[in-house]
Task: inverse folding
């Protein structure tokens, strides 16, 4: 069977969860990465059976998540983490959640994976029009929503089996005006799409790993609700 790592699952409403279910139904082993600040609530909800109804697969069995890893895709290694984040209670309660450490932990636990799913994005100023977006807000959107994929792929490629596949989720706002999708999020998705072509070339040639992105339709996930979609 295949083993899939899905980055960006923190509840049962988003694309990450739905993709995990499809992969589980197809027989894949599921491991997930959850944003550190959302980890406790996700793990306790999972344990307490809050997601059991959403875990039901077409054959009637329940999706198993073999392991949940804490992660924060805006930090590549411990040196990148600022003091205030390090000392933040939610972060200090977990360890090894930078991208490099995450890939090392997955390697240690499982050896390799076949499928990498990037289902995460964040734009602190998403509700502001691009014309009113600060430099910091713009760069934060790109860091969390675009470079996070480059970083994940970079660190996971060495533990991906040849013939493996990676996928991310993009949005039509990269090519057409979608008012409300601001803060540099439209720019971040345009970067993600361009990077998909370049990374497909590089990772395909060098490692026989496929790289694709799906432009998903609107879904009332937690992230979408936060911007009033
Ligand atoms: P979601 O809230 O289920 O998923 C986003 C996840 O990203 C959350 O679990 C959040 O905890 C995580 N996250 C945020 N910052 C992070 C960080 N720094 N490190 C690690 N994780 C972080 O919402 P969703 O809408 O399912 O989003 C999944 C993907 O789908 C995103 O790339 C989003 O842009 C894309 N998408 C969504 C829609 C839509 O309408 N919902 C449409 C097209 C594309």
Result:
């Amino acid at each position: 069977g295949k083993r899939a790592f899905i980055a960006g699952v923190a509840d049962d409403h988003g694309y990450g969860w739905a993709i995990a279910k499809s992969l589980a139904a197809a027989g894949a082993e599921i491991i997930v990465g959850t944003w550190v600040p959302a980890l406790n609530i996700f793990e306790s909800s999972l344990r307490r059976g809050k997601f059991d109804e959403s875990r039901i697969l077409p054959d009637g069995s329940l999706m198993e998540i073999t392991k949940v890893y804490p992660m924060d895709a805006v930090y590549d290694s411990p040196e990148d983490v600022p003091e205030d984040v390090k000392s933040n209670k939610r972060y200090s309660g977990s360890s090894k959640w930078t991208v490099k450490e995450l890939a090392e932990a997955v390697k240690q636990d499982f050896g390799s994976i076949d499928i990498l799913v990037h289902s995460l994005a964040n734009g602190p100023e998403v509700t502001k029009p691009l014309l009113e977006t600060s430099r910091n807000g713009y760069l934060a959107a790109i860091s969390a929503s675009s470079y996070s994929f480059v970083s994940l792929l970079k660190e996971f490629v060495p533990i991906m089996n040849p013939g493996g596949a990676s996928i991310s989720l993009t949005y039509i706002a990269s090519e057409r005006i979608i008012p409300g999708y601001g803060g540099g999020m439209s720019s971040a998705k345009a970067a993600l799409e361009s990077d998909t072509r370049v990374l497909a070339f590089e990772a395909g040639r060098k490692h026989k790993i496929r790289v694709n992105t799906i432009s998903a339709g609107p879904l009332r996930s937690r992230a979408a609700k936060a911007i009033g979609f």
Notes: Residues 3-226 form a domain with the Rossmann fold fold (CATH 3.40.50.720). The beta strands are 3-7, 29-35, 65-71, 113-118, 160-170, 210-215. The chain has eight helices and six strands.
